[in-house]
Write a structure and sequence with these properties.
- This protein has 127 residues and is mainly alpha-helical.
- The protein has five helices and no strands.
- Helix 2 packs parallel to helix 3 and helix 2 crosses helix 4.
- The mean pLDDT is 97.
């Protein structure tokens, strides 16, 4: 695996760990958990592209990124609906007017975990 891919996966893993920690903290920060779950999924998907030297636009839209990954991993198309929801939540909770609750954070983390569990083995890493 390329060194730059390792950097992307390290950043993704840091976001994933932060999402889980924030959801379990007392008091929990569900907004931060949802945001970091979105960031983890984004960075893991981008790591898959980076490993293949595939360029991608500056975007946080997980569906756009997934569509670039699908030629490499065609079986990952089932993620689209969940990634669309995670994109919206990850953006909305960054600003006043929207707050994530426990259910939102848990769903965001589940989606990030599904992405993590697909990307890591695709890159030769343990799940």
């Amino acid at each position: 695996m390329q060194e730059i891919t390792c950097e992307w996966t390290d950043k993704a893993e840091g976001d994933f760990v932060t999402a889980v920690r924030e959801a379990q903290a007392q008091p929990a920060n569900f907004d931060a958990a949802a945001f970091h779950a979105q960031q983890a999924a984004e960075k893991y998907l981008k790591a898959r592209l980076v490993e293949e030297d595939i360029d991608f636009p500056k975007t946080h839209d997980l569906v756009i990124i997934l569509k670039l990954v699908l030629p490499l991993e065609p079986t990952w198309g089932h993620l689209q609906k969940d990634l669309d929801a995670l994109t919206a939540l990850g953006i909305e909770v960054r600003y006043p007017g929207t707050c994530a609750d426990r259910e939102d954070a848990e769903e965001a983390i589940r989606t990030a975990r599904r992405v993590r569990d697909l990307v890591r083995p695709a890159l030769g890493l343990t799940p």
